[in-house]
């Protein structure tokens, strides 16, 4: 769970596992897997930092976190 602040100043706690995407339009919008959209005060990079910290705490380190991998270079024969 991570704490975020709605635009009206209300602090809420959301399940980080349910975050599908985070947009900056210019407010930060968190889209959950349920398609519910939450506008929050924190910038995108802060939300990402909180989610990664949550996952490290839950999974006991970075090895439990699925990070995107860069594309493999093309094979040249």
Report the average pLDDT across residues: 87
End-to-end CA span: 48 Å
**Major β-sheet profile:** 3 strands, antiparallel
Number of domains: 1
Order of the strands making up the biggest sheet: 3-4-5
Order of helices and strands: EEEEEH
Keywords: Cell projection, Cilium, Flagellum
Protein name: Flagellar FlbD family protein
Organism: Thermalbibacter longus
InterPro entries: SwrD-like
Summarize the model shown.
This protein is an alpha+beta fold and 77 residues long. It has one helix spanning 44-59; strands at 2-5, 11-14, 19-24, 28-32, 37-40. The chain has a three-stranded antiparallel beta sheet with strand order 3-4-5, covered by helices on one side. A two-stranded antiparallel ribbon has the order 1-2.
Strand-helix topology:
Elements: E1 2-5, E2 11-14, E3 19-24, E4 28-32, E5 37-40, H1 44-59
Antiparallel strand pairs: 1-2, 3-4, 4-5
Any overview of this molecule?
The chain is α+β, with helices and mostly antiparallel strands and 77 residues long. The protein has one domain. Helices cover 21% and strands 30% of the residues. The chain has one helix and five strands; from the N terminus they run E-E-E-E-E-H. The chain has a three-stranded antiparallel sheet, with helices on one face. The radius of gyration is 15 Å and the shape is extended.
């Amino acid at each position: 769970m991570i704490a975020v602040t709605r635009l009206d100043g209300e602090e809420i706690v959301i399940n980080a596992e349910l975050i599908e995407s985070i947009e900056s339009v210019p407010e930060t919008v968190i889209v959950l897997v349920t398609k519910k959209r939450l506008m929050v005060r924190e910038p995108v990079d802060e939300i990402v930092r909180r989610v990664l910290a949550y996952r490290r705490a839950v999974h006991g380190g970075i090895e439990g976190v699925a990070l995107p991998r860069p594309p493999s270079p093309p094979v040249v024969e």
